[in-house]
Amino acid sequence: MFPSYIRCIRIILLLVIVFNNNLSIVKGQEPPFPFSIAQYIQITDSLATLRQILAYPGLIEVFTLLDGNASFTPTTGGQKITLFAPSNEALISSGIDLSNVEFMSNLIKYQTSPVAVHSKEIAPYLIVKTLLNDPLLVQLPAGEGQVLYLTKALGGDIITVGNGNLSAKVIKKDIECSNGVVHIIDAVIMPPVSLINTADNLALTQFTRAFTDANLLTDANIIKGVTIFAPTDDAFNKQNILAMDAKGKNSLLPLHIINTLVYDIKDDTSIQASNGEKLDFILKNEGGLNITIYVNNAKVERSVLLENGVMHVVNNVLLPLGQGGEVVHDDDDKKGPKDDKSNDKTKNNANINSEYKHTDKKLVIGAVLGGVCGGIVVTLSSCMLYKWFRAQKNSKFNSPTPVHLKSNA
């Protein structure tokens, strides 16, 4: 009786385990990993190049940081960390001198965050601090660490990590380790560079020329914690700007500088520019899952991190409010985006809700099936035990009395 009962229980438990494992795979999660981040790198073939780099004598501090030794992690405060680990192909094809110990140490720190970051937290974007704070590469207030931009399209699984100019895709996510999380990426994320070099990299020649002529570029390049709005070349070539004399154009440029860090622009806010004028910000749902940022009369086309702050590239030269600087939808649509802002927020919430409601249904189904399976186990246990006790009881009263034969010998 018991062997049949045990086989039945094993089958049911196996079904429960298989279902729960499948549910975890659907959710894109892995079970907790028994190794530290450093140990995971040691046993993962796709991270063999990173493993070799961490073996350099000069990288013992970085290795120990990834291994979770608290004596070497004053910046993490004992908290779990996140490593965005470049694959073998990413490091080999990067063109970086992988033997430069000092640079590789800073590079790995830039791809390490002092907090545990899971993919479910990135919707649609997230700004995270890193462990990179070397003053040769970072000029932020109070020795703050440089940051990373993380983005994920609502309703999709593609996650990008980068500095706004260069980015990498996450090719394996949410690898749980004893001291944090690993995401494997397909490219190396380089630390941000100076305002001057960034403008050059983005071919913002008119911006560079205008700020140089107004004696603003050098100062903006050394301010610790600056926010710059950089118009494109096309913006400077528009008729209303071309018609201005040098004095009029120069008077507008301080409006493009904020002397504080504004990484994350909030909807319906105002911030004071360096000349005391006000900048108004609006977030607009442009259809689908695209959220666009507007500042006064311009649209933010991209945001790029700097070694001393952040640059927001805009499609218009900013004008003061009351002088043509009111927020507009774009160059051809003069209707302000505030008109249907409440509808946009509703759409945004609907998009976010639709992304996660399927996961919630799976969790509910898992809980229900788990309860059903548990009920079946209990019921079968009771039935089997009842039958076994009945059989034992009947065997006492119905078994024949043994007969002892005497020998005649």
TrEMBL record:
UniProt keyword annotation of Acetylation present: no
Keyword Transferase found: no
InterPro entries per the UniProt record, alphabetical: Adhesion/Biosynth-related (IPR050904), FAS1_dom_sf (IPR036378), FAS1_domain (IPR000782)
Positions of the FAS1 domain: 34-189, 191-318
Signal peptide: 1-28
SMART domains documented for this protein: FAS1
Identification of the protein by name: 4477_t:CDS:1
One Pfam family, short name: Fasciclin
Residue ranges, annotated region (Disordered): 325-352
A single cellular component GO annotation: extracellular space
UniProt keyword terms in alphabetical order: Membrane, Signal, Transmembrane, Transmembrane helix
Organism annotation: Funneliformis geosporum
